[in-house]
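call fold(seq) -> tokens
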Amino acid sequence: MSQDMQTDPATYLLILSERQAVAWVLEKERMAFPARRRAEVDRLAVGDRLVLLTTRGCWHNPTRDRTRIIGTAEVTSPVRMLDDPVTIAGRAFTQGCDLRVEQVTPYRTGVEMAPLVPELEIFPDTRPGAWAMRIRRPLVRLGSADTDLLTRRLEAVAGDPAELVPEYVEEIRKATARRA
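ret:
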């Protein structure tokens, strides 16, 4: 179905695997994608919802950190080629869209994904670690049952982005400066 004929907004997991990308997305309320063509990125439309997920490697300590849902956002512009590519953590991104961050959890918290895997339809292979292969792409479309479960869990711990995003940006800036 084309984007023009799509009636209900879709919901996607938006996978963020680098802390500098988390700060950029939350602060700028934009998402950038690499040049490599991906069908799911091409299908992203204004009004689609994003469930923001940070991988366990996002914070540079995968033995300590967990994959978590940290917020939600709505897509507010079509994905388009950027006039000037964006570079985040040494990677170039050539297309992007605008977002409105709706809610976010406090810094380095969120809804842990691993315990929810057996309940989620998007992870049919529940063998230990198998589900992580599904999140090695920027977007994964969610069905309504998964969307309901994740947003319900998130609402219990999320708050106002205006209050919580500045801490993400500042803490990530400090962590990045320490590594430099």
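The radius of gyration is 16 Å.
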